[in-house]
Amino acid sequence: MRYLEQEGEGGGDVRLPSLPGRKEGLPRILSEGEVDRLFQACEGDGPLDLRDRALFGTAYGCGLRAGELCGLRIGDVDFSARVLRAFGKGEKERAIPFLGEVSEKVALYLQKGRPLLLKVPGDFLFLTRSGNPMKREDIWRTLRKRGAKAGIPAARLHPHVLRHSFATHLLRRGMDQRSLQELLGHSSIATTEKYLHFDLELRDVYDKAHPRA
């Protein structure tokens, strides 16, 4: 977990399960089916439903850190250029493709959800029920609430679980590590390579343990 903590991606007090023979734990990820269930748990037309679909969509579709999600402002989303600007560690800016369902979810939230949450003028994108900018603990609380509805144990969730899932799923679908490094905002390719190493090790454990593998 040390490399994740250095990248601002540690799960805080969340302990990760260890693989046999390892001292380090794997970054927790959700399967694609579990991600779908998490979105289904946000079904509804209420402002918080719209917000949570947009929030999870941005986290999973753009691979943002929790702090980057909290810091997003309306002006960071460019619908015409289909680009989202994120500011990572050290205020380093990066541009991330903002396409398809992610763009649609955020547009719907801005149109019908955020105006009902806004209490005082401000431009932070994601707001709490009381109209304040979301903080990391708000994201964590929201994940646990929606995860419980989706049947995903809280022990398998943390503020960066969708970011880790984004990275792992893209690698499995063939994205090269250098492109993924740029999307994630990693300063070193070695950090990005950890996802590949962890994924390969997890598959190896599965192959050895599963009776029908």
TrEMBL record:
PROSITE patterns: TYR_RECOMBINASE. The keyword NAD does not apply. InterPro entries: DNA_brk_join_enz (IPR011010), Integrase-like_cat_sf (IPR013762), Integrase_catalytic (IPR002104), Tyrosine_recombinase_XerCD (IPR050090). GO terms for molecular function: DNA binding. Residues 1-20 are annotated as: Disordered. Residues 25-207 form the Tyr recombinase domain. One of its GO terms (biological process) is DNA integration. Residues 1-10 have a biased composition (Acidic residues). Keywords: DNA recombination. This is Tyrosine recombinase XerD. It comes from bioreactor metagenome. The lineage of its organism: unclassified sequences, metagenomes, ecological metagenomes.
